[in-house]
Amino acid sequence: MKYNERSQDMTDFSQTDVTRHYSRTAKLNEEKTIGKPSPYKVSISGKHRFYLFIFSLLVGAINVGLPVLNSLANLTQSQHLYTGLMLTKGLLPYGDIFATGGILYYALVAASYVLGSSAWLTVVQVLAFYVSGAYFYRLVAYLTHKQDLALVASLSFYLLNLSMGFGGLYPVQFALPFVLIGLWFLTKYFHQSTPDESFMLYGFLGAISILLEPRTLTFWFLSAVFVFIVNLRRKEKAKGVYQLLCLIFGSILVFYSGAYFLINLQILSPYFSQAIIYHLSVLVRGTADLWQSLGAQLLLALFGGLLLGLLGFLKKFEPEATKSSPLVRGFLFLMLLVSLPYALGAQTFEPYALLDGLIYGLLLTVLWLNQRQEKVKQSHSHRRVKAGQVDGRLFAKLLKSHLYLPILVFVFGIAYPIWQAFDQQKFVADRIRIAQYLKKTVTEDEKIYVWDNQPKIYADSQLTPSSQLILPVGYASSSMNNKTLEDELLQNQANYIVVNKQMKLSDDLKKDLQTNYKALSVAKVSNFTVYQLK
After folding, report:
1. Low pLDDT (below 50) residues in the chain
2. Measured CA distances, 215 to 342, 504, 530 (Å)
3. What is the rounded distance in angstroms from the CA atom of residue 379 to the CA atom of residue 168?
4. pLDDT tens profile 316-356
5. pLDDT in tens, 69-87
6. For 362-427, what is the HEC assignment?
7. Which of 151, 175, 190, 338 could hold 324 in an S-S bridge, CB 3.0 to 4.6 Å?
């Protein structure tokens, strides 16, 4: 695909509109373009590229810098960082540590530790956000023919990533560029402006994103089904088969390389069971009440503007800016419906659970607002605003009633992890002292287990955990994993067990600690108890 990259304030789009004055020449030109590749080319002006880069730099730097400050890293971020760190020490994700991120993602985190600085991850994250923002911009500009609207939508995209993904380092944020490039490819394909051979690149991008964030498998699978249905409607079955072969060929180049390392490391089976089966089928991420967390996530999605587009999806809109818009909107709607359950059933109040459906909900909302703006404009005036421009006053009025609630979401997204960090301050010093004590006391062949809600003690002591499920929260929140963890602890595989006094233990584990372990005294530690196997 080739794009006109010349810097310009506004892209000159050729488009038809119900309010347009139809001259004879315009009608003839329209007839010539029906069923042919889209004439629209999206160009990002130099000024807008600069804005996207600044947004990416700010959000990327914050998203990498904060988790490194351990007091601000939440459970999910801490586990990802610890898994990457242990990979440099010889402990493998999926084999030695339960993990759901992609192997390529943990390799990136491990590489930053090997290189000695998180600054390398900052570069990767900034690049990921810039590419994501650029293609999000392209999608909005292509579907609405308004570059000012595309810039405003991109700013919303960055702000929501900053608040809902505060602290960053979530695998989905690294995989997002490939998903958005795939969505851009689909949009162009629906308008019949991409060659069939480009499906090799499509498969290549899909494979990389899955190795970063396995849950993106739903996007690539459903997009393939969507393309197949479109081909059936167009009566192009042979073309669909050829595209499928190209897609398989492109993806197998990546998957073969990934499988080669997984097989050599003997973790292919656990990788499939944890990163694919578990990650796609188990929704639980926390221990909050299901109905309370479900209501909170619904409000966050609604206030953040991710559900507004659903309200108008089934309504009758004015004619689309491009003929591909109905197909794109239908696919976005489908992906949002698939992504929402992962947030609603997560049993956590943390807004990062909504990151999976962020781009789909936001794009739907932007398209709905644009359609509503056009409808209001037509009902109040017969004069048409020049193509590529935005009616600033009307757009401001349409967004004004929705901006206040997104501001609340933004504040909550940043305030919640800060409050969590403040709540954990009383444990920070104890964790450091216990890690130092264990590092001096425990031998290399002995194993420990930490009954806590942070892997800080593991990371500081760099000792081997006695279970894949390194903490009783997070992945162990599911009933199946919780039972597995309890059985492993009852088998006395841990030589030392550290227990956070404020976290509940089952009756069986309490009895086991009293029978088979003895409590140790660690100086200046009041919130934890250290047990040693008798």
Report:
1. 1-39, 321-324, 382-383, 385, 387-392, 394-395, 397, 401
2. 10, 31, 37
3. 44
4. 555 554 444 788 888 999 999 999 999 999 999 999 999 99
5. 556 778 888 899 899 999 9
6. HHHHHHHHHHHHHHHHHHHCCCCCCCECCCHHHHHHHHHHHHHHHHHHHHHHHHHHHHHHHHCHHH
7. 190
